[in-house]
């Protein structure tokens, strides 16, 4: 009979009445018949799949509302599952006859139930042969003593799930077994309902209610479409390989899954079979059905120099969107820096407005003889790109594009260590499972290993009690994962959300790979890394949705000597710091996007360490980076822009936000102090450094001071770009130890360039301080100002005041309208070998002013350049900065993201400073007065 003899629609109606075996036979007739049968996927095949009592929805339990790619394929996998538990089993004897009987289709089937061959399960198990099937009819089967499975057997419940209940404790003493469509409840004498110590068990479509599944290596387990509820759990001890696929864990009293102990060396026959199944779940490339997209859309940045290989998806952000999102002005509100503190005197042409901001009420002076300084060492960060767009450092608007991180496959190609971890399959493999509404998710301890792929963790209270202390309340962690004692974890494409404390908690030398996860809306940190844990954290994806966001505390917290490689993550909209590092935490934080937080972007608290390199930190309501002075971080090549408070703030211990501990009141805080003293110091000494370093960063368009320092420790600030902030470029309010500001470019800030308060120790060397709205340098402390270019600032070039003890040497200064150098009050020190240029002939103030009666400050060998504007000479500027050219002289060849560690950009200082006359007229167009 030809297919074309009837319309296709009619054929589909006819074929919809065929049972499964007949559909299979029709597929073998010819290609046309096969295509016709396959076209029934959403009708007859779907009906057969959902109508099978042994089958559940292919996307159960996390996404049953989504259609599978193929209902026929799903039904095929269910059918194959009935056979795979036997296909690789060993022979009980060497007889070939037994192999024949084992494989024959008419294997023995035994029925258990009222009116059947056996009324009890124990009775049937006493007579079954190898690989027989035992069918249990609806009812409740209770055994008063432990039941042993001595030969391979298949136990199947008849009817719908829930109609067959077992109140038993089974111990498997055979190579393999299969249990399907059964409900397990604990008997009166034990909570363990099934255990094996060397064989393989396959569980299909079973429910565990208040019961425990226990697998001990070299025993193995494959659980598919099973439900663990009412405090049920799976406990795996020393397993080589087990697979929990599409299972539902809910209502747990402790941990839903516990993996304890290293994998044993001995392996059973099923390990090869399970390894093959594990490879069928893609490790790279997300299908789009395994994770839900985040609630909010990231309006992030790339701008400037991008990490190699990054693709960027453009998504424009309006000012209104940012206002609605954060409740603040998108261009960053000004912030009160310190009561009674200011940048010093207001320069002429400025006055206080009612809202406390400075506004220019007069036309600014136009510098007729402005010294060009646009070709300084960091100017390439401010120049328009080839397409005419502005780079991130000079763009007044928040970053207008959304980052699209690398795929996991691209990341693995760049990192052999991560590639090795991603390929590992030892221990327990959990994939497509749902953990919900309970105390715990997964617990690993004592060298346990696990791989988590495509799971959903939602609404958990805490993961598990801390095994070391055996007290549940002492480890009130509210986490989805607890790792201890050199554990290895691989987490790929999971969603971790709405936990009452941290999402993922790693401690005590835990290692592994955490990538492509969606971690959000947790009560504490999304990831909490402590006590020497050293994971690789790469949240990457080709589509928006795998990020760390909307946490009620920090996005990632690294404490108690925690380490880790944290790269290419998108961390946004967290209530506390996007990344919080303290108490010996020493991570590598590289190339992350940390944005739209409701507090600070990055927090480095007490005794925090780490390499913070190449990150984009922007649009946070607090500071971009907040650092405690007792910490030793290294910040290299970061873009810290458009934050509502300081760009980078260094505070004394006990000030700022140190009170925000990343724990609940009932957390582990009380257990920290005793642990810290005994911790192995090697975890916190990965890199030997003695001074915090801030180098090659861009701090732009922040709502207050670009770099704010109130510290009791030394600080090195090298080769940074600090521009267009709404406060001073750099403000040092307290610095009992030496703060070194070397080869930085500080320009176009709304207030002054650099302000140093009294009693501070500061060295300014080789900086370019250009076109700030206040004084170029306001200095009331002790130290030296050496070989800086201070040009075009609206106030004084350099103002030294108070009881300062200072050296002002070999600087080149051109004010817009005030004094070049002003020495006010009883200043001690020397002012010599400076070059002072007049910027406008209308400026009547002297280039170097010193209060009368000051005999403790020595001035000598300073050069003064005044301009007399002849009619024939009003065109080109009469001088330039050369030998050396405009400072800073240092620049990073690769942009701001330098990969060298520790990075030391070249600082080239010249002892000889001179100015040449360039004029279209004659040498008489400029008059030099030398004192």
Q: What would your notes on this structure say?
A:
The protein is mainly beta and 931 residues long. Among the domains are: 12-84, no CATH class; 700-865, Pectate Lyase C-like. The chain contains 12 helices and 74 strands. The strands form 5 sheets. It has a 24-stranded parallel beta sheet. It has a 24-stranded mixed beta sheet, with no helix packed on it. It has a 22-stranded parallel beta sheet, with no helix packed on it. Helix 4 runs parallel beside helix 5 (71-84) and helix 10 (408-414) packs across helix 11. Residues 89-104, 283-320, 328-364, 468-481, 658-687, 869-873 and 892-931 have low confidence and may be disordered.
Short key terms for the protein model shown above:
elongated; 24-stranded mixed β-sheet; 12 helices; 24-stranded parallel β-sheet; Pectate Lyase C-like; mainly beta; 931 residues
What's the structural blueprint in terms of helices and strands?
Blueprint lengths: L7 H8 L4 H8 L3 H8 L2 H11 L19 H14 L11 H8 L5 E4 L8 H5 L6 E5 L2 E4 L4 E3 L3 E5 L6 E4 L2 E3 L3 E5 L2 E3 L6 E5 L3 E5 L2 E3 L2 E5 L3 E5 L2 E3 L3 E5 L3 E5 L2 E3 L6 E4 L9 H10 L31 E4 L4 H8 L23 E3 L5 E3 L40 E4 L3 H7 L1 H8 L3 E5 L2 E3 L5 E4 L3 E5 L2 E3 L22 E3 L4 E5 L2 E3 L6 E3 L4 E5 L2 E3 L6 E3 L4 E5 L9 E2 L6 E3 L6 E3 L2 E3 L6 E3 L6 E3 L2 E3 L6 E3 L6 E3 L2 E3 L6 E4 L5 E3 L2 E3 L6 E4 L17 H10 L13 E4 L2 E3 L6 E5 L3 E4 L2 E3 L6 E6 L3 E4 L2 E3 L6 E3 L4 E5 L2 E3 L6 E3 L2 E5 L2 E3 L6 E4 L3 E5 L2 E3 L6 E4 ...
Parallel strand pairs: 1-2, 2-5, 3-6, 4-7, 5-8, 6-9, 7-10, 8-11, 9-12, 10-13, 11-14, 12-15, 13-16, 14-17, 15-18, 16-19, 17-24, 18-25, 19-26, 24-27, 25-28, 26-29, 27-30, 28-31, 29-32, 30-33, 31-34, 32-35, 33-36, 34-37, 35-38, 36-39, 37-40, 38-41, 39-42, 40-43, 41-44, 42-45, 43-46, 44-47, ...
Antiparallel strand pairs: 20-23, 21-22, 73-74
């Amino acid at each position: 009979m030809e297919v074309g003899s009837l319309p296709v629609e009619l054929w589909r109606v006819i074929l919809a009445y065929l049972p499964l075996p007949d559909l299979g036979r029709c597929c073998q007739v010819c290609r046309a018949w096969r295509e016709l049968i396959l076209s029934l996927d959403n009708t007859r095949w779907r009906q057969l799949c959902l109508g099978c009592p042994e089958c559940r929805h292919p996307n159960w339990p996390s996404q049953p509302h989504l259609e599978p790619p193929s209902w026929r394929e799903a039904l095929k996998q269910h059918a194959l599952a009935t056979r795979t538990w036997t296909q690789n089993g060993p022979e009980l004897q060497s007889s070939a006859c037994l192999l024949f009987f084992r494989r024959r289709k008419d294997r023995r089937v035994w029925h258990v139930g009222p009116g059947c061959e056996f009324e009890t399960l124990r009775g049937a198990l006493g007579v079954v042969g190898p690989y027989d099937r035992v069918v249990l009819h609806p009812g409740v089967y209770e055994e008063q003593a432990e039941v042993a499975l001595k030969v391979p057997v298949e136990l199947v419940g008849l009817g719908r799930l829930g109609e067959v209940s077992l109140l038993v404790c089974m111990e498997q003493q055979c190579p393999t077994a299969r249990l399907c469509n059964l409900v397990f409840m604990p008997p009166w004498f034990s909570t363990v309902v099934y255990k094996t110590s060397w064989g393989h068990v396959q569980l299909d479509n079973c429910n565990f209610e208040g019961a425990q599944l226990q697998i001990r290596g070299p025993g193995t387990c494959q659980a598919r479409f099973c439900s663990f509820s009412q405090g049920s759990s799976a406990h795996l001890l020393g397993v080589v390989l087990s697979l929990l696929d599409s299972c539902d864990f809910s209502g747990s009293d402790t941990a839903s899954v516990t993996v304890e102990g290293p994998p044993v060396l001995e392996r059973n026959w099923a390990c090869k079979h399970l390894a093959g199944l594990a490879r069928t779940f893609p490790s790279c490339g997300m299908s789009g059905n395994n994770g839900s997209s985040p609630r909010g859309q990231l309006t992030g940045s790339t701008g400037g120099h991008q990490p190699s290989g990054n693709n960027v998806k453009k998504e424009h952000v309006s000012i209104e969107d940012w206002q609605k999102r954060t409740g603040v002005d998108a261009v960053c509100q000004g912030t009160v820096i310190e009561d009674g503190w200011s940048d010093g005197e207001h320069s002429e042409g400025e006055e206080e407005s009612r809202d406390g901001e400075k506004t220019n009420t007069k036309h600014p002076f136009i510098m007729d003889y402005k010294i060009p300084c646009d070709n300084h060492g960091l100017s390439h960060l401010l120049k328009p790109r080839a397409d005419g767009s502005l780079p991130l450092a000079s763009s007044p608007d928040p970053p207008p594009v959304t980052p699209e991180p690398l795929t996991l496959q691209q990341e693995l190609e760049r990192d052999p260590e991560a590639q090795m971890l991603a390929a590992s399959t030892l221990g327990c493999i959990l994939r497509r499972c749902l953990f919900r509404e309970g105390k715990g998710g997964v617990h690993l301890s004592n060298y346990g290993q696990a791989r988590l792929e495509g799971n959903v963790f939602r609404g958990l209270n805490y993961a598990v009690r801390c095994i070391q202390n055996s007290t549940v309340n002492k480890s009130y962690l509210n986490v989805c994962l607890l790792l201890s004692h050199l554990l290895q974890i691989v987490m790929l494409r999971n969603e971790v959300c709405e936990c009452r404390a941290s999402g993922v908690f790693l401690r005590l030398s835990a290692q592994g790979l955490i990538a492509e996860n969606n971690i959000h809306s947790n009560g504490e940190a999304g990831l909490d890394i402590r006590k020497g844990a050293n994971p690789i954290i790469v949240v990457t994806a080709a589509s928006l949705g795998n990020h760390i966001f909307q946490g009620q505390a920090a996005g990632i917290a690294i404490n108690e000597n925690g380490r880790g490689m944290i790269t290419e993550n998108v961390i946004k909209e967290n209530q506390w710091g996007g990344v919080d590092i303290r108490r010996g935490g020493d991570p590598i934080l590289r190339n992350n996007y940390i944005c739209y937080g409701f507090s600070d972007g990055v927090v480095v608290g007490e005794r925090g360490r780490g390499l913070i390199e190449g990150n984009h930190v922007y649009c946070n309501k607090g500071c971009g980076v907040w650092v405690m002075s007792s910490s030793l971080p290294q910040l290299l090549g970061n873009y810290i822009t458009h934050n509502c408070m300081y760009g980078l703030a260094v505070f004394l211990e006990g000030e700022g936000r140190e009170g925000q501990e990343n724990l609940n009141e009932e957390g582990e805080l009380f257990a920290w102090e005793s642990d810290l003293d005994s911790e192995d110091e090697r975890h916190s000494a990965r890199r030997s450094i003695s001074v915090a370093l801030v180098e090659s960063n861009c701090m732009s368009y922040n709502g207050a001071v670009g770099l704010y320092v109130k510290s009791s420790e030394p600080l090195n600030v090298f080769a940074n770009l600090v521009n267009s902030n709404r406060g001073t470029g750099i403000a040092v309010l307290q610095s009992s130890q030496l703060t070194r500001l070397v080869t930085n470019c500080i320009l176009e800030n709304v207030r002054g360039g650099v302000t140093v308060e009294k009693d501070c120790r500061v060295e300014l060397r080789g900086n370019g301080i250009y076109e700030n709205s206040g004084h170029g340098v306001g200095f009331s402390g002790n130290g030296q100002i050496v070989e800086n270019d201070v040009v075009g600032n609206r106030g004084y070039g350099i103002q030294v005041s108070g009881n300062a003890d200072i050296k002002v040497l070999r600087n080149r200064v051109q004010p817009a309208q005030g004094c070049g150098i002003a020495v006010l009050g009883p200043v001690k020190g020397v002012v010599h070998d400076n070059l002072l240029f007049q910027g406008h002939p209308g400026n009547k103030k002297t280039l170097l002013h010193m209060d009368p009666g000051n005999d403790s400050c020595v001035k000598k060998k300073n050069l003064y350049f005044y301009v007399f504007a002849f009619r024939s000479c009003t065109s080109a500027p009469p001088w330039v900065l050369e030998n050396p050219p405009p400072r800073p002289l240092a620049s990073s060849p690769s942009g701001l993201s330098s990969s060298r560690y520790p990075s030391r950009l070249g600082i080239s200082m010249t002892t000889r400073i001179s100015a040449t006359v360039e004029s279209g007229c004659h040498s008489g167009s400029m008059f030099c007065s030398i004192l």
